[in-house]
Amino acid sequence: MAKNNAKQDLKPISNPKISNSVEDYLKAIWMTAQDGAASTNALAEQLNIAAPSVSAMLSKLQNLEFVVYERYKGASLTESGKAKALELLRRHRLIETFLFESFDYSWDEVHDEAEQLEHAVSSQFIERLATFLDHPTHDPHGDPIPCPNGNLPDTPNTALAEAESGQSFVVARLLSQAADVLSYFAKLGIQPGKELKIIEFEPLGGLVHLLIDDVPRALSKELAMIVRGDIVKTPTV
Amino acid sequence: MAKNNAKQDLKPISNPKISNSVEDYLKAIWMTAQDGAASTNALAEQLNIAAPSVSAMLSKLQNLEFVVYERYKGASLTESGKAKALELLRRHRLIETFLFESFDYSWDEVHDEAEQLEHAVSSQFIERLATFLDHPTHDPHGDPIPCPNGNLPDTPNTALAEAESGQSFVVARLLSQAADVLSYFAKLGIQPGKELKIIEFEPLGGLVHLLIDDVPRALSKELAMIVRGDIVKTPTV
DNA sequence: CTTATAATTTAGGCATGGCTAAAAATAATG
DNA sequence: CATTATTTTTAGCCATGCCTAAATTATAAG
Ligand SMILES: [Mn+2]
Ligand SMILES: [Mn+2]
Ligand SMILES: [Mn+2]
Ligand SMILES: [Mn+2]
Fold first, then answer.
1. Is A190 among the domain residues?
2. Is the per-residue pLDDT at B59 higher than 70?
3. Domain of B207, in residue numbers
4. For residue A140, what are the CA distances in angstroms to A63, A191, B16, B18?
């Protein structure tokens, strides 16, 4: 008859199972500010939660020592908070990879499912999953998967918009979580691994003309900022 | 800026995402009573939740029309409640099968993980999973996996305790969720698919002596009631 | 440097799902 | 059938997270 008698000690022994919400907040802080401070509004926006609720949660996270928070000045992760955030990010991206590779999820479907599953899986599950997938370093969007120790694999990060006429560009990553943006890229055939040939940049509007699978296409500057990768001087033969 | 403005209409349009708790209660009612009525205490026991909490939840389930509930007389599932319960059971058992087959989970580890995951996966995930596993009919414990329409595949259900000296018995199912019981069976090599030879039953204590993988073993009557399967008159050659 | 605007916090609620202690109903027993 | 024992419900709390409306504080403009 053990029941739920945890009652909470003053300093929780160690693993009082962080709630889904707390996990998502920590991840959001990391995504918004990495090592800097994330503002209340930015987090409210990211999480789609009203600002006062965020305010309250930031105080709570401070008590849990996941965050350093000063009123009106935003919150930044402590070491322990950062570790939790990266752990969740690892889970999220491994799950996305799995859904994409093994379950034929489309590119813009993986995120929502992973957003839920990330909270439900055990660490045993995650390590078995990593093994099953042969320890991938990047997810289907090209985002780096944090290692168990929190290291982030290197990731090419030159924007397509920074390339020049005549160059080739290998896509490594798409810096967007918006489903409509992602499926638009998918429709164009722009995905990690794909090689693009830049025909030319328009002088003023910033439009870029390029060849995707030998088909001529045009992309706005905004979208060309989202596409990240490497410039290749010597096109593959 | 949609926010969480659902507010709940009088009759919820259709899918206001049932909570984990509600799902677990419905499953517990099904497991405790199938089509009959489950008592408050039985559910409290199953779910490891205090009886007053169960009482409150049963009223709530009645309002949601998942249950017919009369004070002091227990609750029984409505059609809609039963459908939800079987849907969850399907998720649970498919997930257990997956963990066992693809992730090398041991037999007694699958349950706890599935207990969480079952609430987090979408129906898209579940149908992809079913395809991935090639539409299994039974989980690693031999429990039938409900079909999407709620049908339960047939399952051999003769207790080992009902067999007779000299007969062979093919294990199909182990009617227990207790991790210690399951790992004890695992240690003995008793698992779905295994063929046992019954040497003899002790006349009074009910102990059964049998051959498992040609090794002589003894099993108590209690355990022999948990092992379910088919009696085979003609041992395989 | 004052005022208008924007960001953030406080105040006050609400829903969900737990708990314990005490009352009430049902079931079992002499 | 009266009394005890068991089961179940009621009453009263609490924690978590979310919300809106109303301060308050910071920031930007004039
Ligand atoms: Mn999430
Ligand atoms: Mn991703
Ligand atoms: Mn569950
Ligand atoms: Mn099972």
1. yes
2. yes
3. 158-232
4. 36, 9, 30, 30
